[in-house]
Write a structure and sequence with these properties.
The protein is α+β, with helices and mostly antiparallel strands and 723 residues long. The strands form six sheets. It has a five-stranded antiparallel sheet. Strands 12, 13, 15, 16 and 17 form a five-stranded antiparallel sheet that branches. The N and C termini lie far apart (119 Å).
Amino acid sequence: MRGARIYECFNRDSDLYVFRNAVAVLMVLLFAAAPRTAVAMAGDWDSNEHVKVRIVSAVEAVGEREHIPLGLQFQLQPGWKIYWRSPGDAGFPPDPQWMGSSNLKEAALTWPAPNRFSILGLETLGYKDEVVLPFNAAVAAPGEPLRLKSQIRYLTCKEICIPYEAKVSLDLPSGPASPGAYTHLINSYVSQVPGAGDRHGLSVEKTVLLSGNQDTLIQVEARGREPFSKPDLYVEGPEEAIFGKPTVTLSEGGNRVVLQVAALGVAPEIIEGKSLTLTLVDGDRSMETVAPFRFGDPIAPVSLRQTEAEESSLWRVLALALLGGLILNLMPCVLPVLSIKLLSAVRYGGGDAGSVRFGFIATAAGIVMSMLVIAAALVGVKSAGMTVGWGIQFQQPLFLVFMALVVMLFAYNLFGLFEIQLPQRLSDMGLSAGDRPSASGHFLTGAFATLLATPCSAPFVGTAVGFALSRNASEIFLVFTALGVGLALPYFAVAAFPKVATALPRPGQWMVVLRQILGLALVATAVWLLTVIAAQIGAEGAYILAALLALSGIVLLTRRLPQSRLGRHAGKFVLVLSIAALALPIVRAPQPDETVSGPVGIWQPFDQAELSRLVTSGKTVFVDVTADWCITCQVNKKVVLDTEPVAGWLGSENVVAMRADWTRPNAEIAHYLASFGRYGIPFNAIYGPKAPQGLALPELLTTALVVEAASKSGSATSLIARQ
């Protein structure tokens, strides 16, 4: 027994011995592997008290690549800077020399967009804190190890300037060129290297050379797909020229900029006929181009395409917003909520004036507050650099499904399928359209009316919204407040004159019939929403949603059946069905390659490049920006565009009808609208011999307006003949 115990202990010790040795071997292997990976990915820092610099690699080994993505990484102490390739009034950029490298054929730095530093009248360009200067190392023998050695001469400045020389190196072994730890870092700076303007929606439209009283001046006109924020221009030309900080003039809602730069130290004749390198920077956006400069007329700071919104003062725009909001009450998009408005009035028949004032002021407050919420959302979206527009929430299937649910709940309530036997808090929210709702109920009625109003762009609304979305946050809130007050004016009017409501007949049996009629109006609204949803997630998805909504109505109907077990739990079943409906847009989300059905008949799909080509060739082009959720757009089609004489003119030989479908988000269409200072639809424009830049039409079309615009564009002869 004692021998067995000794053997057992020995056996345990043996296992422990083997385990310890295995761990030790593993640790040695890991330790040996780690340094090789670090060396392969980054060289050692060359450090001084102000700057650290080293070489980093985006790949772990050479692989079979002919060009290896690398970067010079600089880390600077706070306040210190290094210089761009063209430093400005003083300084010099980092200058690496690659003597001593092996298997290296060529290495040339690229330069991320720099910052401007203005000190005591001196303008310099460079980087602070940290920067990586990306470069591709061309190898002489792909697959063979690469050894980089460089001596870098650079200047760093704060209050004083100190020249340094850094010695850096990096060894990359042969082996698979797998991405490594510094891939993202290098790529993030590669993306900041200015390239062609189309990547960021920037373009240089015109350049001109001017001779000033004392200085040589150059002017550059540029456009942006999104409004400019703080544009800057860096100019590189003859070595003897020093180019200063530009003066900046924005127009067209910020989408157009004219930059004027003084070229010191050179006569105009030195630049005449030469091409200068231009780097245009605006925040995270940048572009680089080479453009010729010749003497010419000065570029006007305000172009012929100056938008209507820019020509308006803020006070005038606020007045237009107030009027536009009032007119919005008469637009087709708002008509579906007529049932809620009408019912909120007739329930006060024979009532007291105080209740009328309370209810209608609460509804008006719901409208104004909803407009402010929309304004806040647009400010946030704009600040994030995303597309902004009036009514773009109708491009989101989840929002559409939510609205369809709310509309049908209102309809079922009007049909008397339920009278809100819900928890007190929900009851207080005023979901019952039939009884006297609380302040929350009146408030939500106003909010609901506002949401259904946003697909429409009434006269003056487009001008006001276009002005607001091209300005700062405070002006956006002011304009949308005016829109909300305008939309709420009828409610304020009834609150001021409550006899309008109290003089109506007292509620009675006749209201039951009215509720049924108005419930049918809401069902029609839901059907319209389903057609829009079908364009977003497909007809099958819309059918499933319709079935869920209908099933909710059937479940609510069982509440009327005596001893119905399902009826007692109808609220829970409806909640489950509602959750299923809200999940539908996520499950049935359209794939990126799915598109809304294109234009048919005489209409061809919108294409900005094709539009320009057609106008240049002398064609007349009529552009219609529309969407399935825009009821005013459908009215314009039925009343004007699809009827004679306009329909015949659009189908004639020398006229091209182009339709842009904005039912779903489309950046190209949003940018096109923004180029006219518009952010909502309907939108129509005519291009012709006398209007190559396009003439924008009002939101509501008439045949007379189309004839007038066609005449101004120089293409109305055939249209007038058809009248």
